Amino acid sequence: MRNFIAHPEHGIVWISGASSGIGRALALKLAGEGYRVAVTARNHEKLVELQLEAAGLPGSIIVLDGDVTDAEDMEHVMASIEYEHGALAMAILCAGVYRPVHGEDLHRADFEKTFAVNLSGVVNCLLPAIRHMKAKGQGQIAIVSSVTGYTGFPTSAAYGATKAALINMAESLKFDLDKIGIRIQLINPGFVDTPATRKNAFHMPALVSPETAAERIAAGLKSQAFEITFPRRFTYVLKFLRILPYGLYFALVNRFTGWGERPANSSHRPVTPHPAE
């Protein structure tokens, strides 16, 4: 039996973290394909700008403000979709933050904020979305993780930990969601050119634009694939790295990133938003 694939006639697409980065580009891409897209983020002004930019496209943008770290907020967003706009056909959970972590200068707030947005924020959206889709007997969910979830990288002790958790979460949920007609997919992008990634202190190979990322994701959402990952020439190298012996893995990553040559960091870095926030 083929998995459910959401089309515009099936109902609303809900995208969290749509004010910038991948979420924003994907909202415009899907609206251009005729979908009605409900967008959620904390920044109301950016969502309104997105809505205006989508004017004239075959689909439309519906602004629904909300903070993914607030479970009650996400319940209200889901209720608004259900009672004011129609059935939820697909949820794409993009919201996230990236706070660089240095082992020699640890701060609890970096972990707490990252976990609250990237992990608990996904759960806060998943629960009402799955409950709605279960009642309808069908639905599609896509969770945006990252290739940093495959294995550890410099400055990613908090961010990578949440992305690894999302990968495991999606894999685990698939066993049960398949039985009730809800299709779940995992999105693992490589490096995407955003204000946040430009602050990375290492070379980023195979960098793609948010628009290219949106095109790859939109195509993947219409496929039968569980994982949507790109660009494969880069992400498949990372898949290979994670099966290497640790001694070889750490040596290669230090060389690849140049991290082994860098002095220890003694000052806390400024907070930078993840492109999907």
TrEMBL record:
Domain Ketoreductase: 11-190
SUPFAM superfamilies: NAD(P)-binding Rossmann-fold domains
Keywords: Oxidoreductase
Pfam families hit by this protein: adh_short (PF00106)
Keyword Oxidoreductase: yes
Entry annotated with the keyword Coiled coil: no
Family designation: Belongs to the short-chain dehydrogenases/reductases (SDR) family.
PANTHER family: DEHYDROGENASE/REDUCTASE SDR FAMILY MEMBER 7B, DEHYDROGENASE_REDUCTASE SDR FAMILY MEMBER 7B
The protein's name: NAD(P)-dependent dehydrogenase (Short-subunit alcohol dehydrogenase family)
Source species of the chain: Rhizobium viscosum
Lineage of the species this protein comes from: Bacteria, Pseudomonadati, Pseudomonadota, Alphaproteobacteria, Hyphomicrobiales
